Amino acid sequence: MSPTRQDAWSQDEDLLLAEVVLRHIREGGTQLQAFEEVGKQLSRTSAACGFRWNSFVRKQYKSGIELAKKQRKEIKKQTVPYEEEYPKEEIREETTSSVTAKNEGVTFQAVLHFLENLQKKAAAASIIEEAKEKSIQKLKDLEKKSYLLISENERLTKNIKAIEEDYRSLIEIMERARKMVVLQEEDRQQKVKFQMDKNGNLERIEK
Fold first, then answer.
1. Is there a contact between 81 and 128 (Cβ–Cβ < 8 Å)?
2. pLDDT at position 74, please?
C-alpha cells in the first residue's frame, strides 16, 4: 500500500477532483464516494480530498455544480417515463394472469400475443437504454470540455491581471522619469541669466 501523500495539490489533481465529484453529483452518487475514489487514485485520504474540495475547488466550479444537478434531473426524467409506461408490476400481472388462464384453458393465440408484447417492451427498453447511455456519454464529454474551458479562463484571467500590473508599474516609472526631466529643466533655466555686453546686446551667462 502506497504511503498517504501530504504535499501540495497540483492543477491537474484539482481538475481530477472536480471531474469525479461532479460526475457523482450528476449520476446521483455522494460526495463521500467521490472523495474516496479520488483518494485512491492520488494516494490521499478521503478527508484530505474533502477538505480540498470544500476549501478551494468547489468555489471554482459553482456553475459546474449547478450544471451537474440539472443533468441529474434530466437523467431521472428520461428514466421515469419508461418505468411509468412499462412498470415491473405490469409484467408480473400479465404472467400471473396467464398462469391463472392456464387453469381456465390457455389458447396458443393468447400465449403468442403475450410473448409478442414482451418482445416489444424489451425492444423499447433496449432503445431507451441505448439512448440514455449516449446522452450520458455526450454529457460527460461536454462536461469535460467545460472544465477545461473554466481552467483555461482562470489561467488567462491571472495572466491579464499580471499584464495590467506590469502596465501600471511601467506608467508609474515613465511618470517619475517625466517629472525628473521637468525638474531638471526648471533647475537649468533657473541657473541661466542674461547681461548686456558693451555693444548693448544681451548675452546668456551661467549663474
1. no
2. 86
